[in-house]
Amino acid sequence: MFRCSACGHQVAKWFGRCPECGEWGTIAESAPAAAAARTGTTSVAPSSPAVRITEVASDSASSCPTGIAEFDRVLGRGVVPGSVILLAGEPGVGKSTLLLETVKHWAAQGKTALYVTGEESAGQVRLRAERTAAVHENIYLASETDLATVLGHVEAVAPTLLIVDSVQTMVATGTDGVTGGVTQIRAVTTALVSLAKTSGIAVILVGHVTKDGNVAGPRSLEHLVDVVLAFEGDRHSSLRMVRGIKNRFGPSDEVGCFEQRADGIHQVTDPSGIFVHHHESDVPGSAALVAMDGRRAMVGQIQALLNDTQMTSPRRAVSGLDSARVAMMLAVAEKHAGIKASSKEVYASTVGGMKVTEPAADLAIFLALYSSHKDVAVPSSTVAIGEVGLAGEVRRVPSVARRVAEAKRLGFRHAIIPAGSEDEELPRGIRISRVANLLEAQSAAVSRHDYAQAPF
After folding, report:
1. Residue 443 among known ligand-binding residues
2. From CA 403, how far away is CA 426, in angstroms rounded?
3. Annotated binding residue at 96?
4. Which terminus has fewer CB within 10 Å in the chain: N or C?
C-alpha cells in the first residue's frame, strides 16, 4: 500500500500528487493495515483494575527540571517521567548542542542519561561535548541505528533520560519500508513510546523538518508523542528559539530563547536587549514596540527610511516585518496622515533579526514611517502598541497590560496604547497615552515631556 503522510489517504500505487489533499511528494510506501478484528470478540480480564480519578496520586507525573530555565519554561516546569518529547528543527540550528547541554545539567543532578546517536560516531559527540564543556561521568554514549540494540542499551544502562538523535535514522528490524520512511518512523516511535510508558524513562526524540518547516514523517508521529517542540533560528543570527507546538503537561504557546556561541548554546533570559539598538540620542525613523510571541512579551525596535528618488517605481524593501502590512500602513499613512510616499524609496526593518507579524506592530510601523518622513525623532523612552485599521483608527490588541508591564520593566516611561484599553490591570509608574486615530498617535509620540534619561 501507499499512504499520504499529510492526510493519511491510502492508494494502491504511487502518485506524485495525493489525489485526496493535493500535496506533492507525500505518497510513500507503507505496510498494509492488519485485518480488522471480528465483531463479538470475547472480553479479556485487565491486568490492573480501573480506579477512581480521585484515588490517583496527583504527584505521580510531576515534572523534573532539566536545569535549563528557558527549556523548562517551554516544557512546563521540566521533563515528566515517562513522557516522549519530539524536538524538530532545520539542519545545523543547534538541536544536538542543546540536547548535550540538557544531558549535562541532567547528569549534574546525579541522574543517568543515555545519548543515542544515529548520525555521528561516539567520538564525534565526545569532541563536541568537550568543546561545550558537556562531559560528565553520568552521561552514556551509544552510536546505534538498530532499535533492538538501542533497547538493549537501555536495559544495560537503566537511564532516567534517553536521547535519540535522530528518529529518522533508527531502523526497526522486521518492519517493511526504507529507513526514514513512514512505516519505519511510525514503528520506531511506537516502540519508544511504549518503552517510556512502561519504564518511566523520559525520551527526547530529534526530528527533521521538511522544506516547508513542518516535522518530517507521518502526521501521526506528532499525535503519538506527548510534547512537540520546534527549534527555530536564522543562520545570519545567533538567536535561537524553542517554540512549543503541542504539550500535554503545560502551555503550548511558550517560547524559550537561546544564543548560539562558539562554546555552545546559552539561554537568554531577557531577549529584549537583543532587539533594541542603543543610541546616544534620539534619532528619526525609529520606534519601539512590544510584541507577543506566544505568552512572552518582547520589546523590539522598528526602523524606517524614506528617500527621495527619480525612479518610476520606487523600491520597497522590508526585513523582519510582514511586507503586506507595511504596504497597507503606507497607504493608510498617505490617506489619513499626509505622508506622501509614492515618490520615495521605503525601507523598513526590525533590529537584531526579530520577526514580527502580528497586527499590534502597526502603530510602531506608522510612527517609524512618520518619524523618517518628517525628520522628527520619537523619544526612545516611548513604546507604541496598537493595530491600525484602513480608516486610520487605532484598534485594541490583546495582552496590553502584559506588554506595558514589560516596557516598564525595561525602563520605558511612556506607552502609547489604543483608546478603550482596560485600565485596571495597567501598571503604575509609566505615562499612558490613549489614542483613537493616527493624528492623535503622532501628536502623542512627538510631544516633549520632562523625561529622565532615555533607556536606549
Report:
1. no
2. 9
3. yes
4. N
Short-list 237, 361, 387, CA closest to 292? 361
User: Is there a binding annotation on residue 353?
Assistant: no
Residue 92 among known ligand-binding residues: yes
pLDDT tens-digit map of 255-295:
999 988 888 899 988 877 777 766 667 889 999 999 998 88
313 marked among binding-site residues: no
89 carries a ligand binding annotation: yes
User: What amino acid occupies position 150?
Assistant: V
Q: Is 411 among the annotated ligand-binding positions?
A: no
Q: Mind listing the domains of the chain with CATH numbers? A: 1-30 (no CATH), 64-269 (3.40.50.300), 274-446 (3.30.230.10)
Confidence band for 202, pLDDT divided at 50, 70 and 90? very high
Query: How far lies 325's CA from each of 362, 445, 456, in Å?
Result: 7, 21, 26
Q: pLDDT for 101-134, tens place per residue?
A: 999 999 999 999 999 999 899 999 999 999 989 9
